[in-house]
Amino acid sequence: MEIHSADPLFCGVDVGASSTKLVLVDGDREVRGRSIRRSGVDYAATARACLAEALDEAGAEVGQVRRTVSTGYGRRNVDFSDDARTELSCHGVGCYHHFPRAITIVDIGCQDNKIIRLDESGRRVDFKMNRKCAAGTGAFLEEIALRLDIEPDELERLASSTTEVVRLNSFCTVFASTEILAHLRRGEPLAGLIRGAFASVVNRVAEMDRLGGEVVLTGGVVAHNPTTAEIFAEKVDGEVKVPPHPQFTGALGAALTALAQAGQSQEENNA
Amino acid sequence: MSHQKSAIKKIRATGAMREVMGEYFAELDEARKTGSEKIAWCTSVGPAELLRSFGFLVYFPENHGALLGASRMAADLIPAATAAGYSPEICSYLTSDVGSYLSKSTPLTRAFGMESVPKADVLVYNTNQCRDVQDWLGFYEREWGVPMLGVQTPRSVDDLNAAIVGGLIEQHKALIPHLEEISGQGFDIDRLREVMASSHRCTQLWRKVLRLAEHQPSPITFFDATIHMGPAVVLRGDERAERYYEILIAELEGRIADGVGAVDDESLRFYWEGMPVWGKLRDHAEQFAGQRVCVVASTYCNSWIFDALACEDPFEGMARAYTEIFIVRSEEFKQRYMESMVRDYAIDGIIFHDAKTCPNNSNNRYGLPLRLRERIGTPFVVIDGDLNDLRLYSEEQARTQFEALVEQLQEQPV
Q1: How far is CA B337 from CA B66, B160, B299, in A?
Q2: Architecture of domain A100-242
């Protein structure tokens, strides 16, 4: 990638199972542009389209991008990436940028969930991913929206409109959808069922690990359904925080990693 | 299309191992075709020494299970067993082997030119590993109408006390009249002692192979060891296994003398707890080697070390040897064992494989990883998978977790 000496930018791109997120930061760690698109089937093309959009927002040119780090499931498919890091690493870096202290990160994505613990210095000391199962992921909510023939955006409106929770017992996403239909036939309110589905997601995530201290929630599920954060706060003992743009923390972490790598490289050149 | 160069280093002795394994299967195939010798099927940590002392050729269905997994035939064959009433949630060695039999398709054809597995004259199990082995051989008992004999071993044993050993001695002795009748040979305790002495020498050589991995850099990986354990599994008690391990040890000692590691620039050393994911063995070996990680130790490969075979009383030797193994033991024993392995092999991280259809080989399920980390601080990941059924394995999640553990051990805060 061509390098311009003025106003360098550092790019992070998070190619997730559902969405691709891209963030551009400058040398002062300030976000200059961001973009999000459905990942689709051509990850490289989607990432390039995101880059073009983010550059447009930043009023910058591609030549200003000094370094790119990719993350997420499609991290190896980004053809303009200089390095690939796991989402465990990048979510940690992104969250620590907002909350520079010992934190526990809970990322609820479309395909998987992650719990990441950072110490005071931002060093990752532990992580967990969900089991091979869609229960408790964004895919669970997408499946339910599909079965009920409602727009995914409607889920949040319905769940936030009630405090009633209709409890779902099924562990399995497919069976939970069937269970919801059975509840509807019995006349249970749709809003309570959707709030119950949110609670089900939270329960599946909360059982992955013992959560306490300061918990930071990220990922698309929280971004699109803030009520999940509210339910989560009721579930765990610790304090629950949500960073700005929670769906972009992985991409932000990747961009900050790119900036740090460029700095290291510069130091090595100067040495 | 360009291909990336493999990061896996070949072990030259592999050719010698293939010859030994080829001879073993050729003898079984000859007996299958001509009936020249009696064949006993035996579970992998069953009384193979006793069977050999009666002159049986010993066939190990678990070895066939591993071949079905490694050849990736298992996923196509398991449905045949499921359709015959065997749940896809029970041992996938069992289901892939039964599916293989029902589908008349075996990896032995391609590997060793065998048309089918050799039919048993007797089926002998030890439930030290699980109950599934009994149900597995029970399928063939019904199918072929051949006798099935077995030893029932207690599980979750902490103190292998005299009462347990005494009971197992009696169970092994009770096999003798049946084996005399089936083999047509009288029991010969001197012959049993000879077989056990050979088996013990094999086990000591195999231990030496595994212990060479304590060296840094290690001359062998866990993935190599899962292949090279073949003779220790199927030919213990046969001197050809001993000769093979002498060749392998010489090569590995040569690597150590030359400063050559199994993984170039070894930077981290991992422990693999649980079964291999047989169909992904090469992929895993490549990924770890590519990240300069050597998986140097495992529970699985150590399961074929039987110190007690040297016991003065051969029956006590068998009773102890087949029950001392990790899989039979209590959680407390397992924790102590892993602590010592982590120390001995200078382990940086542990991979726990939660094999969906093999609960007894999935030691993450009762809190062991967290207890271990609390005591010795070793980070770990748990991957969801299976020994043979790749439908239960999540490729991307596993790869990401391996990579993330390496990052965690290497990266500095940004």
Answers
A1: 25, 15, 9
A2: 2-Layer Sandwich (3.30)
Q: What pLDDT digit, counting tens, does each position of B59-108 carry?
A: 999 999 999 999 999 999 999 999 999 999 999 999 999 999 999 999 99
Q: Which two tokens stand for residue A53?
A: 């959009």
CA–CA dist B397, B400 (Å, integer): 5
Residue type, position A131, single letter: R
* CATH pick for A9-90+248-270 out of 3.40.50.1240, 3.40.50.10860, 1.25.10.10, 3.30.420.40: 3.30.420.40
Global pTM exceeds 0.95: no
**Where in the sequence is the domain holding B117, given as residue range(s)?**
14-410
Q: pLDDT tens for residues A95-127?
A: 999 999 999 999 998 888 899 999 999 999 999
User: From the CA atom positions of chain A, what is the Rg in Å?
Assistant: 19
CB of A122 less than 8 A from some CB of B: yes
> Which residues in A lie closer than 8 A to residue B400 (C-beta atoms)?
73, 86-88, 129
- Is the Cβ of B377 closer than 8 Å to some Cβ of chain A? no
Contact A132 B404 (CB under 8 A): no
ipTM for the whole complex: 0.88
What tokens appear for B107 in the block? 């990896």
Phi-psi region of A165 (alpha: psi -120 to 50; beta: other; left: phi over 0): beta
Taking CA–CA distances from B401, the nearest residue in chain A reads: A129
- The token duo for A92 is 């940690």
Question: Total structural domains in chain B?
Answer: 1
pLDDT digits (tens, 9 = 90+) for A171-217: 777 788 888 889 999 999 999 999 999 998 998 888 888 888 899 99
